[in-house]
Amino acid sequence: MFSANSMRSVWRSNKRLKISSPFRPISTPHSPSQESGSPSAHNPNTNAVSSEIRTPSAPLESTPKEWAERLDQIGSKFRLPRNVQAVYLKPLRRKAEFGLPVCDLQLRSYSARHVEFFADFALRAAYYLNLPAFGPAPLPRITERWTVLKSNFAHKKSQENFERVTLRRLIQIKDGHPDVVQTWLAFLRKHAFHGVGMKANVWDHSPIGVGKLMDETAAELDTAIEEKLANFGSSNKALEQAESVADLRVHPVYSVRDASRLLYRQLKPSRSLCPRQCRRNASATKSASTPNDRIIFSGIQPTGVPHLGNYLGALRQWVMLQNEAVPSTKLIFSIVDLHALTVPQDPTILRQWRKQLLATLIAVGINPKRSTIFFQSAVPAHSELMWILSTISSMGYLSRMTQWKSKLQLPEESTLDNSDAKSRLKLGLFSYPVLQAADVLVHRATDVPVGEDQKQHLEFTREVANGFNHIYGPVLVMPSPLISPAKRVMSLKQPTLKMSKSHTDPRSRILLIDSAEEIHQKIKLALTDSEPGISYDPSKRPGVSNLIEILGHIQGGADGSRAFAELGREHHHLSMRAFKEHVANSLTEHLKGIRERYLELTNNTSTNIDSIAEDSAKVARENADITLRSVKDTLGLS
Fold it and tell me: Region Disordered: what ranges (predicted)?
C-alpha cells in the first residue's frame, strides 16, 4: 500500500516531468490511431496515415562567416535577447586599411577578471565608433614585494611579506581619426571600471610636406620672437615704461627731457614716484647701444713687459681688431692695475710695470688716437659699479669659479669649506670676477675678446648683467665673447707648461723687448730632444714641436698660423742647431720693430707716456660715467 506522502511525491514528480520532441525518426509497427481507437479510424473521409512517422528535420547548413549573417541565424534560432547573446560572443572588430597606429591604450589592474572585462568593454566601444582595434595583448606583469610590520617590535617574526602583481593589457587603435579617438577615450573615462587604471599614448602624425611648411614659416617665427628675445630677462613693468619712453623719443618733436616731462604730467599725478621712473627709463634707453655701435673692451694685468705668449695670444689680436674695425666701433683697452693688487706688490715695481706695459701696447701697434688705453685705477666708476654688482652676485657662483683656486694652487673641486682655502683666501681674490664684470659693463661693451680660460668669467659677467636687468630694468648691455683661436706658447725650459713670468728661470720666456743676442741665447738653450731631424709631434717631441709652433705663429702673421705639420716636413732635413738658428732669426726680425718703438717711447721725453695715459683716462671716465649715472638713477642714488 502507498501512503499519502508517497503518492503525493509521485504526483509531483510526474507533474515536473517534461517530454521533448525527438530529433530522430521513430518507427512503429502499427498506426497510433488504430491502437488508440480514435474516431478517426472509423471516419472514411480521413486520409490514410503512413505506418512510419518521421520528424521533419532541416538540412544542416554551413556556418556563415560574416557576423551579420551569424547574428541573423542566431536570432532566428534562439529567443535570447541580443544583450544576453553578446555575453557569449567575442567583441566585433573593424578591419584596418592602412595599419597606421593612432593610439595605444594600456589597462592595469590587480585583478585579471576586472582588466579582461574592461578590455572587452573598450573593444566593443571602439567597434561602434568605427575604430579598428587590436588586442588586448598581454604585457609583462609588474611584481612588487612589500613587507608589513604586524607588531610594535621589528623582529622577523613580526613581519609579513606579500607580493602585489599588476596585470596589464594593451589595446591599439589603427587608422582612426584623432577626434574619434579622443571621443573613445572620453567615453572610457566616463564609464571607468573600479580597480582598472588607464594610460593612453595618442600619436600625432604630420603630413609629408610639413618640412617645407616649417621652412616657410621659420622666417616669420624669427621675426615674431625677435622683439621678445631682445628684452629677455627684463621685468614687464620696466619694459612697458621703457617702450613708452622709446616711442616718445622716436618722435622728432620731443627730446628725452620732453618725454620725461610728458610722462610726469600724464602718467602719474604723484610727484614723489613719477619723476624717478621717468629719469630711470630715459637713462636706460640712452645707455643701450644700437646694433651698429660696437664697443670692444679687453684688459691685461701690469706684470712688466709682455712675453711672446701674451703677444701671440692677445695683443696681436687687439691690433687686428683695431685695423679691421669700422670707424663707428669703439675700442677700449685697460691696464687692470687694481686686479694686480690681489697679490702683494712692491709699489715701486708696480709703478714701473704700469708704464712698461703702456709703452709696449703702443709699440705693438695700439694707436692711442684710434683706441682708448687707460689705467683701471684712473676710472673710479669701475670700483663703484663693482660694489653695486656685488650686492646681487651669488656667493655660490663665485665659489665655483676657478680663478681663486688656481691662484692658491688648490684642486678644482675645492670648496669654501676647505680649511686651507679659508686661511689663505682673501676677499679681493674671491671677488675678482665681480670687478671683471664691472670693467666690462661700465663701458657698455658689446664684444669682449677672450680666450678659452677666460670664457668662464665672461659667462659670470652675463649672469650678473642679466640679474641686474631683471630686477631694475634694461640698463646694462649684455656682452658677447670673441673667442680667439688658441695660440698657446709653451715654456722654453718646460715645454709641457705655458710660457709664464711666474717661472723662476728667466730663460724660459722671450720678452717683446729682448735684444737679438738674448733671443738667440734663449732659443739656443731651449729644451729639445736628441732625436735627429725635425718633426712635429707634441706628445713625443714637445720641445721641438714648441719651436715649430712659434715659427708657425710668426710666419703666419696677424691673420693666422701656418700648418705645423707642414713646417715640420719643410725643415726635416735641418739639424737641431740649424733649426734653432732659423727660429731665432725669424723671431728677431719680427720683434725688431716692436723693440725699436718701445725704446723710442721710453727714451724720448717729447713723447710723454703720462700725458697719453691721462688723455685716455679722461675719455674712459666720460664713457664710464654715462653707465654709472644710469645705474644710479635706476637705484635711486641720484
Answer: 21-64
Sequence-ordered strand ranges (E) for 410-523: 447-450, 480-483
Three-state DSSP state, 101: strand
45 φ, ψ (degrees, to nearest 5): -80, -10
The cell numbers describing 541, all together, are: 717631441
The Cα–Cα gap between 326 and 321 comes to 10
C-alpha cell at position 293: 655701435
The secondary structure of residue 312, as a DSSP letter, is I
pLDDT value of position 242: 47
Instruction: List pLDDT tens digits, range 541-570.
Output: 999 999 999 998 888 755 556 688 888 888
Enumerate residues 6+ apart whose C-beta is below 8 A from 304: 352, 353, 356, 357, 501
SS3 (DSSP) at 420: helix
Which residue matches cell numbers 627730446? 255
User: What contacts 98, CB < 8 A, 6 or more positions away?
Assistant: 174, 175
- Domain-wise residue ranges, the chain: 95-202, 231-287
Query: Among 484, 526, 517, 489, which Cα is nearest to 595's?
Result: 517
The label of the residue with cell 712692491 reads 346
DSSP bridge pairs for 144: 164
From start to end of 336-452, where are the E strands? 372-375, 447-450
- φ, ψ for residue 109, nearest 5 deg: -165, 155
Sign of the dihedral through C-alpha 360, 361, 362, 364: positive
CA distances from 151 to 160, 162, 209, 268 (A): 10, 16, 67, 71
CB 181 within 8 A of CB 171: no
> Which secondary-structure segment (H or E) carries 196?
strand 196-202
Distance, CA of 168 to CA of 112 (rounded, Å): 9
In whole angstroms, give the CA distance from residue 118 to residue 189.
Answer: 11
Amino acid 597 reads R
Dist. CA 131–CA 175, nearest whole Å:
7
The amino acid present at 73, given as its one-letter code, is: Q
Environment class of 271 (CB within 10 Å of its CB; exposed 0-12, middle 13-18, buried 19+): exposed
Contacts of 631 (CB under 8 A, 6+ apart): 385, 388, 475, 476
Q: Report which residue type is found at 382.
A: H
As annotated, the active-site residues are: 407, 498, 501
Count Cβ atoms below 10 Å from residue 587 Cβ, excluding itself. 22
DSSP-derived secondary structure letter, 607: S
**Which secondary structure element, helix H or strand E, spans residue 104, and what is its range?**
strand 101-109
Instruction: Using the Cα atoms of residue 466, residue 468, residue 472 and residue 478 in order, give the sign of their dihedral.
Output: negative
Q: Which residues contact 193 (CB under 8 A, 6 or more apart)?
A: 114, 117, 118, 121
pTM: 0.54
Amino acid at 218: A
Residue 342: CA count within 13 A, CB half-sphere: 23
* Residue 249 clears pLDDT 50, i.e. is over it: no
Where do we find the cell 712688466? Answer: 304
Beta bridge pairs of residue 333: 298, 373
Cis peptide before 136 (omega within 30 of 0): yes
Topology (CATH) of 95-202: Alpha-Beta Plaits (3.30.70)
Distance of alpha carbon 297 from alpha carbon 477, whole angstroms: 13
The helices-and-strands tally (H runs, E runs) of the chain is 25, 11
Q: How many CB atoms lie within 10 A of CB 275?
A: 15
Q: Is 163 helix (H, G, I), strand (E, B) or coil?
A: strand
